[in-house]
Amino acid sequence: CLTDITAKPHGGESPEEVYQRVCPVIDELTEEYPGANVLLVSHVTPIKSILRYALGCSGSIYRSLHLDLAGLSVVEFYPEHQAVIRLVNDTHYLR
Length: 95
Fold this sequence. Notes:
single chain
């Protein structure tokens, strides 16, 4: 079901499990590389999890946000879970 963020595909992780795995990584990178640019390349659900974390929103983002293949998103993370989303799903460079 698309609205159940705890549902997982056979042998995979649920969106909520991905979110729980991604959040500590973002915190670690923010602490380890303050003010630096860090490139993360990933699949759709981890990217949506990063955006969810930056927005501080519910899991509804998984069903309401579309990300294209090779879309570029930019988020600035700051201490104390502060974030600014600069760009979401940019694909202009593919045209």
